Amino acid sequence: MEKSTARNRKFGIGLLVLLFVQLLPVFRVQEAEAISWAYVQSLRFKKVENYFFTDTDCSFIVNIENVPPEKVSVSVNDVPEGVSFQGSSKGAYMPYSNSSSDQYGTTLTLSFRFNQPGWYQIKSIDVRIDETYAKIPVENVEVFENPSTVRPKISIDWGNSNVQVSGKHVKVNAGERIVFTMYIQYAIQVLNFSWKLPENSIFKELEHYDISKNVVVGEFSPDKMPLALFEWQPLKPGTYDFPEFDILATSYGGIRYEVNYKDYKYEMEVLEADENFGQAEKDEGVFAYAFVSPPSTQEAVQKKALEDAPVDRLFELYTTERHSILLFSSTRDERLALEEELGLSSISHVPSVPLLILAWSLCIASFIATILLFALKKIPHAAVCAVLFVLLLAVGILYGHQASKQYGIYEGGEIYSIPENTGGSGVNMPKGSPVLVKHSASGWLYVVFNDTYGWVPENTVRLIQ
Fold it and tell me: How far is residue 251's CA from residue 184's CA, in Å, rounded to a whole number?
């Protein structure tokens, strides 16, 4: 009886072993079928970060279900020019929070570096998943300049303005109203935003946007952000530079930059006005139609005295300096000290009338001496005088050009973009500012003070005779 029981037990164990051996291929097939070829073909490497930047590690990731990390391997052999492979990493992937230990898969991460901005297409990556070999595609990506190192940039959108734009050259008819938008890129904040009024034109800001109000931009964006909307109406034919803006901006790297003027510098060619241009403006009193030469010294009328005594004294010092020779006068030092006390900008040198007269007198004397010495056949001495004459002639011409400029002292206040009371620019000039007078028109003077240009009433400037 015991032998029969032992025999039955051995028979049962053998039957179980035989059954296991017969079912083992089925288990293997089921395990192999856990990762199907259709599933492998659906896999894609996708970018991890929202934006890829140059000279930083940029990652692509793919999640593989039901295959543990030890059964996954990767090989990266071929990358585009300008791209370098930094390495790969594997980790456990749990597709569901309640997944059991036998349901986890693999997260496969690849890191690359890009040298230049632009669009990139990396070839499919060779990946072994369990016993299956596959090429998994990689998402195409756009790489941007690294915002931590790139300077903020300015660009101009001419919109629907009636202008002809060819590169950095713009043509427009006098009187045409040009509406353009200024944009900035790669900046998180604009700390300073101002501009110089262009000559012979009406120039005004129509609208300014958030970033030009010291608002800090949040996350990185490659898009251009509008700074301000302007209207510009050139009034006189000629060639002009695009208005120069003073822009101080903070980059994504936290560095403050003065924006490069070359980014948005255009040459503006203003053509003759349309035959109908100007009549409506004259009827409405929009601007004084004639632009004439600066007032001459003989025609200048004595301006009303400035009420402020220190400023009045400043005018006297400028007048004295203009009619004295610097080496024999302390007027310049006194004038500079007074301007520093008043917090005013200075003219480093006021052309001296006596010095100009002296230069021309010496020039004439050297010319006469040269003629006489040649007549007396004293050639070496005549040559020396001739050289001296040429030098004094050059000095006289250059210094005469400087001395011919008309300077004045401004009583302070708002300057205007056009010679009309309706053309206020919102820009103020300090009282006592030394200005250069360039034009006059119907009781208005066009003046220059440092980087500020504009029209002021004629009776607000005392001309330095």
Answer: 11
How many whole angstroms separate alpha carbon 265 and alpha carbon 153?
A: 12
Place of tokens 């302390």: 330
**Contact assessment for residue 170 and residue 79, using Cβ atoms and an 8 Å cutoff:** no
Reported as a pLDDT band with limits 50, 70 and 90, residue 24 is very low
- Residues 267-313 have pLDDT tens digits of 888 888 766 555 545 444 455 444 444 554 434 333 333 345 677 77
DSSP string computed for 273-330: PPTTTTHHHHHHT-S-S--BPPPPTTTPPPPPPPSSHHHHHHHHHHHHHHTS-GGG--
Nearest partner of 350 among 201, 194, 465, judged by Cα: 465
CB of 247 closer than 8 Å to CB of 192 = yes
The structure's pTM equals: 0.52
CA angle 454, 227, 261 (to 5 degrees): 60
- Across the range 138-146, mean pLDDT stands at 91
How far is CA 86 from each of CA 147, 317, 433, rounded to the nearest angstrom? 21, 71, 62
* Rounded Cα–Cα distance for residues 107 and 260 (Å): 45
Q: Which of 61, 186, 67 is nearest to 117 (CA)?
A: 186
Beta bridge partner(s), residue 195: 245
